[in-house]
Amino acid sequence: MTTSVPGRPQLAASAVIFRDSQFLVVRRANAPGRGLYSVPGGRVEHGETLHQAVAREVREETALAIDIVGFAGWREVLPDPAAGRTGHYLVISFAARWRAGEVTLNEELDDFRWITPDELDALRTTQGLAEIVAAARRLIAP
User: Fold this and answer.
1) DSSP 3-state assignment of 32?
2) Which is the most buried residue in 3, 4, 77, 118, by most CB within 10 A?
3) Which helix (H) or strand (E) holds 31?
4) What is the Cα–Cα distance from 108 to 29, expressed in whole angstroms?
5) Does the pLDDT at position 4 exceed 60?
């Protein structure tokens, strides 16, 4: 099956979700980023606000309800065929607090962990995740 790659960047939103002193990381089951830990998120749909998109993506991927605290930063993911990335994404990340639910992963993810920010270095993660987590942490516990 041939996958069509859009000729322009795609907008995505993600959330660093804190529950007490820990935050949620999820491992991607599919490309791009297969086998890497990151935070829940995905593409913004036409007509959605960023807040609506991130809340929807978190609910679809993990079954959690969240409260968005604020903007934690952004990162750009450029095509890199050697790394298996063909898409170009602009990812807007938010700090959030867990509100309700227990993690139930969809088919896009194959593992999750609630960890402290200090434990992040032990995991293989998506590029720039540590900086986004640090920024989100400052918003949650200034």
Assistant:
1) coil
2) 77
3) none
4) 5
5) no
Q: Dump the DSSP string for 73-135.
A: EEEEE--BGGGTB---EEEEEEEEEEEE------TTEEEEEEE-GGGGGGS-B-TTHHHHHHH
Give the integer Cα–Cα distance in Å for 15 and 109.
15
Cα–Cα distance, 59 to 116 (Å, whole number): 22
Query: Can you say whether the dihedral through the CA atoms of 50, 62, 110, 139 is positive or negative?
Result: positive
Cis peptide before 32 (omega within 30 of 0): yes
- Split at pLDDT 50, 70, 90, the class of 86 is confident
Domain ranges for the chain:
10-140
Greatest pairwise CA separation for the chain in angstroms: 48
Residue 84 CB-half CA count within 13 A: 8
For domain 10-140, give the CATH number: 3.90.79.10
Phi, psi of 121 (to 5 degrees): -60, -20
The pLDDT tens digits of the residues spanning 43-60 come to 999 999 999 999 999 999
